[in-house]
Sequence to fold (684 residues):
Amino acid sequence: MKAVMMGTEAATMAVKLARVQVVSAYPITPQTVIVESLADIIGRGELKAKYLPVESEHTAMSSCMGASMAGARTFTATSSQGLAYMHEMLHFTAGERVPVVMVNCNRAMAPPWNLYCDHTDSLSQRDTGWIQYYCVDAQDVLDSILIAYAVAEQALLPVMINLDAFYLTHTSEPLDVPDQETVDLFLPPYRALNKLDVDDPKTFSIVCGADLFSSIKYKRQGDTLAVARLWDQVAERYNRHFNRLHPTVEAYRTEDADLCIIGIGTATGTMRLAVDRLREEGLKIGSLRLAMIRPFPREVLQRAIAKVKHVIVIDRDVSFGAEGIVAQEVKAGFFDRRGELRITGFVAGVGGNDMTVDTIIPMVRQAISGDGTAVEAGMSLWAEVLP
Amino acid sequence: MSEQIKGKRELFVPGHYGCPGCGATVAMKQTLSVLGEDTIVVMTAGCWSSLIGIYPYTCLTVPVVSVAFGATASVAAGIKAGLTCQGNHHTTVLAFAGDGGTFDIGFQPLSGVVERNDDILFICYDNEAYMNTGIQRSSATPAGGWTTTTPDSARKGQRKKNMVEIMAAHRIPYTATASIGAPEDLKAKLEKATHIKGSRFIHLYASCPTGWRHATELSIEVARQAVRSRVFPLYEVIDGDTWRLSPMPEKESVDAYLNHQGRFKKMSAEERDRLQKQVDDEWQCLLGKCQVPNRAG
Fold:
């Protein structure tokens, strides 16, 4: 079925199609459309689920974890400060190995208060053990949430689906809504192997000594790393059902490229337009979207741009005292090619600065020539800084 | 109370890591003996998350999850929702937290859960300080009491937070105080609570010889002294508005309660008099709420 939806509406539709059983959520701009519409479809009985309208994000995640440990398929959504308030429970949920799926609407962290797009909120949660996926459009939102449940329930790890504030949460786009029967074939009901069950009593997450602790974390590290491949396998299965592919890494015109722009989120669509424009000038340039940041899809990324000589990473975020977070990740991913690959990092589009073709192209030119208006801060070049 | 009233297997088996004379272990033993096998326990940072055992050993044979500090009520509510949507309406989800996990860091989620009247039983085993981390003050610590963060040079001045009034103010179906020193009363209250749907809160007084500085064999006696002196009276609140006094023994002064506990030994005669007056006033206030005519004892 064809429809026109905002990213937030696509998320709600995916939750309905996934037959989620427990929703626990707390409102925050720009996520509110999701919690409001879920309350409504659950209230009207369109989705048979229990809705917990909780008093905070810490509780939203705690309740999702509890429901998931009881064997239910669960969902929550948040943004920015709300995600930060969940931080403790993000570690806990990943450590309990429960397949909670969450939408995070990427919004700037205060202070100063700002409601607009910025990736520092979720990227600063990258060490909590959650799988992190960054959407590019509304179709990607709907599809990736369904893929996320299949991946989460197989890997027993929680998945965070990230939507750029307003650019994606509040922009209406045409998309294809899959039919329920086919979704049910792709995503059967969740059957928890380890759960809180009075007929099979088990004890979860009590104190354990250093020897076993290390082994538990090592196992989780292996299982998390394996998700990079698992996601692409599940995405391929999704593609067979619905004829749409959502891989961990999407390369554009990189086959013969010497130069490649890398980013995450909606701006990667604009990066393609910038690539087209610069190609007309004869520049051998491509772009690459990192859909997945955790686990970091290192092998796929390395293969995708094996011949590129200069990478330009544009971060809508920063790790204070270091540089853009995606740039850090990319540099770590290409450490073994450090002698032959140049990597230039920009910080741009933070706090809702629009990232257009006309802001991307000057960054590319500055990366090549050294001349431009972006100013240095450590290893990054900052665009859009007032003189 | 040591026999299993419901259930076929022992739910609290030997091997806990608690201190000698630990009131919190008695609290769990008494609770599980009434609730039985059809119970999932959610615990949080606190004495119980340590004394349950170290993996792979546990002293409880019901399903248990030990969660982040403060998340007891919210995880319990999630578990109940998860069970309910799968058709399980019978299992009791027991949130079992200490006073820190209830009065302080767990306060906001608890308020949220009971305001929504989620169907959980929350029991606060109250030993009146952060005992697991080494006896630091909580908002449940009584005025005049010593702890490591209210040392003799700066003993606690503020009175204990009245958690039962706060829970009753949420108009939940059942709120009660209980004591490990009054097991028959606790049993009756637990049985009542298990037959009620919605949020149920029991404030369970659980003495701590390590933190209160009393002899380990006196744990039950000290709990009884708290009841007799009316420092910790026994009552229940139905639907947040109907207050009922539980069977109470003859009233005695606070002296015996204070004298047995090292944490109060620096209290002056003036402080003791002030405490006695507060206890007397609160007792009269409680009798008024319970619509019991004023009486001396």
Remarks:
- Chain A has two domains: 2-241, 249-382.
